[in-house]
Amino acid sequence: xxxxxxxxxxxxxxxxxxxxxxxxxxxxxxxxxxxxxxxxxxxxxxxxxxxxxxxxxxxxxxxxxxxxxxxxxxxxxxxxxxxxxxxxxxxxxxxxxxxxxxxxxxxxxxxxxxxxxxxxxxxxxxxxxxxxxxxxxxxxxxxxxxxxxxxxxxxxxxxxxxxxxxxxxxxxxxxxxxxxxxxxxxxxxxxxxxxxxxxxxxxxxxxxxxxxxxxxxxxxx
Length: 221
Hints:
Elements: E1 14-17, H1 23-34, H2 38-43, H3 51-68, E2 72-78, E3 81-89, H4 91-96, H5 101-111, H6 113-129, E4 136-143, H7 152-166, E5 172-177, H8 183-188, E6 192-199, E7 202-210, H9 215-218
Parallel strand pairs: 4-5
Antiparallel strand pairs: 1-2, 2-3, 3-4, 5-7, 6-7
Helix pairs in contact: 1-3, 3-5, 5-6
């Protein structure tokens, strides 16, 4: 895990690139962030015993896949603590997630066949909603609950947007949330709704921000 420079000894938040040394910290942050999310509760059947283990297994397998495929992974450091993380997938990964055979096997063995199938079906529905296929994805982003409401999520998302705008292999960023209270935040960052996916008794919101030539210079980090 590498970080930036602390100017004048100020403990300001710093964006860091994540490597496998941050794996366990990232898993802990993301499990805390997602275990209460409606989308994960539906996909991984929170009513059945072992729910948190399935969430942890899914987060772990996704993180390992992203590191294995050398995808972008970034975090926010504050007071020498990793407080927020995000994993960014290139467009091809979303299109080919179902073809990641070894990942699918590990998912079935840890999260179970039914949950793995439900998760893949959910991704297929998101893919079908994209206005064009060359979009980066943001399937994992979270802030340590102890550090929420301090602006770290906005710092993290702004950096994700900048990285995506600079990457010529994609021209947009897609994310989703089952929690409608996050919608104003994403809309303030320039995301627009592509629609919703019905998951049980609630709707998951799929959001998209398109990038054009020159957007990287305007995106704040």
